[in-house]
Amino acid sequence: MNQSSQTETKRDGSGSIVGTERRGVIHSWSRTLIPTAKDAPSDAEAPSHKLLSRGGFIRRVGAGIYEYLPLGWRVLTKISNIVREEMDAAGGSEFLMPALLPTELLKETGRAEAYGDLLFRFEDRHGRDSYLGPTHEEVITDLMRGTISSYKHLPLNLYQIQTKYRDEFRPRAGLLRCREFLMKDAYSFAMSVEGPGGLNEQYDAMDRAYQRIFERCGLDFTRVEAESGPIGGSASHEFMVNCATGEDTIMVCPKTGYAANVEKCETGPRKHDFAGDPSGELEEVHTPGCPGIEDVSKLMKVKPRNMLKTVVFKVQSTAADLEKFGEEWVLAVVRGDHDVNEGKVRDAAGCPVVLADAEEAKAKGFAIGFVSPRAAVGKKGVLLLVDPDAAQGVDTASGKPMFWVTGADKVDHHVKHFNWVRDLGKDPVEAERAGDKFLMVADIRNAVEGDPSPRAEGVALEAKRGIEVGHIFKLGTKYSEAMGFEILDEKQERRPVIMGCYGIGVSRTMAACVEMIHDENGIVWPAPIAPYHVILVPMTNDAASDVMRVACDLSGRLARAGCDVLVDDRDERPGVKFKDADLIGVPLRIVIGEKALAQGGVEFKVRTDAGKGEVVAVDGVVERCLAMLG
Description:
Largest sheet: 9 strands, mixed
Strand content: 25-35%
Number of helices: 18
Helix content: 25-40%
Number of domains: 3
CATH superfamily of the largest domain: Bira Bifunctional Protein, Domain 2
Number of strands: 34
Distance between the termini: 26 Å
Radius of gyration: 30 Å
Structural class: alpha+beta
Low-confidence stretches: 14-20
CATH topology of the largest domain: BirA Bifunctional Protein, domain 2
Mean pLDDT: 92
């Protein structure tokens, strides 16, 4: 019964092609591979991992490595086709780059080292240093610098759907964190940021295309501002599928719709005031083996919110830049129950920073794990950045002097009753007014629920959970400058090309959809990406019966109408077939039995409806299916 043609070609009287019409496929359960199971793999924790494994969509080969079985591949193909249609409509051209690549390309941008252990890196039999591509910025830049020489060839947008590789230390959650995964990555090229064909125009086109893609896939998603991370660039946005089991936190302003991930989310103004009497004499406490906040909190019986966490960063710049910025080190101070945000530290300091190497920092005199704000005093080239919540001299709740615990700048020791004015030896506010730039107050931590919204006064941020399925970046000239990709502009002057990068996790999108909507019975696929639109369940597999005759007739009519049909022709009990139909999540189920046929109909049921379904006339089934599928 398997029929796999996807389109029917239309021709005029002379035989010329005048168009195509999509036809659905008809597959028999008995003639494809759908190994359903009652139990999930023992290592499965995420709902998508459990259900995709139980439903016979994927099978684990090794840690973070999966086979996509026929059902899974059909879903991935449908997602990929939606991506292709929208990318093509937005002006993209599809091509394919290799997954096996020479490491020399990564060395040009410094990412051979930056990727670290995440990179699958090896030597071939001839000693050539190679890697498996986690992403392809260097490869596409190398292609373009070898083929494009003039502004007349731009703007341009190229994309591929390709297998990517990352050597995750702890692959988990099935397809959500793999070592091998399917991804769409696109790259745009322009000579300007503004104007026709510029980066902003291309970025906005990709933004709109992404929203259409995820809408067509039937996903409930949020577009959020994001940090660029190791990819780099001046701006980026993520597309997050909203679901309670998501691994990412999204901060949302309920009034304005502003949304950002915790790494990027701004906070509204927070009052601060260093002034206030000390809560007591500065007292040193021996805290052996307690460099972490939680350990000290337990030992000293103090809440993390009453502790100051000081994180040491090293300015990453050339000698000329160091002279320009005036800092070599940045000390970032936040409250003990908050997390320092490296991107915000970078922006506040106005220079690139990286978490300091412990040994190098110790040589400078920083007692890593026990550093206090006082470590900035008297040191040249050190900037002290303090988050507003840490820059308090008075407890706003009680009105009493603020009780602070911080490091003692000595290994295995902390101090309590720290006071900003007394223990820095000068009033930070007055020092700043006098032109002493050793200290700045700035938003340098991850936002948390309840923080003031940066877009609406008096409104608090709310936290949601989500799964990242897409990410777009304004790369600028980061890669073109590093790799010497310059072309002639209209004035015949050589300039680096301005780039953008746009990724979609195709296999992650499949898993995220399952995380987003499922129930106790199994998966609930949105119709556009479901492996099949309709599952026909005949109550007998006797080929000569009226039941199978109607099944064959209905499957043909549904396929001609554009529906993909799975016919469950197995010699199994009805209960087994019904449970499997719910498990694999096909949107519509049609049960064909003698009782309903005697009434001139079949049993029609939507996957999300409770109960047995309703009897629908055989002649009206196709129209009913099309109406339900939209």
